[in-house]
Design brief:
The chain is α/β, with parallel strands linked by helices. It has a single domain, classed as 4-Layer Sandwich (Purple Acid Phosphatase, chain A, domain 2), CATH 3.60.21. Helices cover about 30% and strands about 20% of the residues. The strands form two sheets. A six-stranded mixed beta sheet has the order 3-2-1-11-12-9. The two termini are about 35 Å apart. The model has no long low-confidence stretch (mean pLDDT about 95).
Length: about 240
């Protein structure tokens, strides 16, 4: 089975549309979204509608939790708080209710896959994994990890290979899973990449071949940025789209 896995759309409808169009040539059997459908961008309702239509399951991201009233975000910086407050007002009742009921994790036992937004160690705290030191903390929950654990949150494409006693960071390129190891993979961001590549990120996992693949696709950044301005959100949320940070 071929899984289409994507994350961190952040209300960027143009990026999400480009990703879903690109997936059409990939023979995907089922889609999963790893969270943060909202936050930062100009199209929260449109993105929520599309994710609800396409994804079999969607994970709760920290921005989703904030907009849904499921976490305290008073410590976020002012522009981010304003975007979350704005999205809370923009969302339809149906989409707000959808966010309020999203899970922190989904286990695909038949494929030995764990899906979550941030670190699986303390799910409700939405901690980052973008370095081996952070991945190493997952050794303490070895049995809970899938053969592959897929996360978002950092907006970076990252691969960590774990044994019961070690962590190795691998390059974020296509790879085949090995027996005896477990993998934590950060799938990057659809709507706001932060690796200085402004193309939308999306991924594929073939459960039969045990092969994981990274993909990037260009999209209409100018239109996405225009929608940020129209929503009267911080101008930096539009500017950063063009440089991928």
């Amino acid at each position: 089975m071929r899984l289409g896995v994507f994350s961190d759309i952040h209300a960027n409808f143009e990026a999400l549309s480009a990703v879903l169009q690109a997936y059409r040539s990939e023979r995907i059997d089922i889609f999963y979204c790893l969270g943060d459908t909202v936050g930062y961008g100009g199209s929260p309702n449109e993105c929520a509608d599309l994710v609800r239509e396409v994804a079999e399951r969607t994970i709760l991201g920290n921005h989703d939790a904030a907009v849904a009233g499921r976490m305290d975000y008073s410590y976020y910086y002012e522009a981010a708080r304003h975007a979350l407050d704005t999205h809370a007002m923009m969302l339809s009742d149906d989409n707000a209710e959808w966010l309020r009921n999203l899970p922190y994790e989904v286990r695909l036992d038949e494929h030995d896959v764990l899906l979550c937004h941030g670190s699986p160690v303390r799910l409700e705290e939405f901690e980052y994994i973008f370095a081996p030191e952070q991945a190493r903390e997952c050794l303490g929950i070895w049995e809970r990890l899938g053969h592959i654990t897929l996360i978002g949150h950092s907006h970076l494409c990252k691969v960590f290979a774990l044994t019961k006693t070690s962590v190795e960071e691998l390059p974020p390129t296509d790879f085949v899973l090995e027996q005896g190891k477990k993998y934590i993979v950060s799938v990057g961001s659809v709507g706001q990449p932060r690796d200085f590549d402004n193309r939308a990120s999306y991924t594929i996992y073939d459960t039969t071949e045990k092969r994981f693949e990274f993909r990037r696709i260009e999209y209409d950044i100018e239109l996405a940025a225009t929608k940020v301005h129209r929503a009267k959100l911080d101008r930096n949320f539009a500017f950063r789209l063009s440089i991928g940070v």
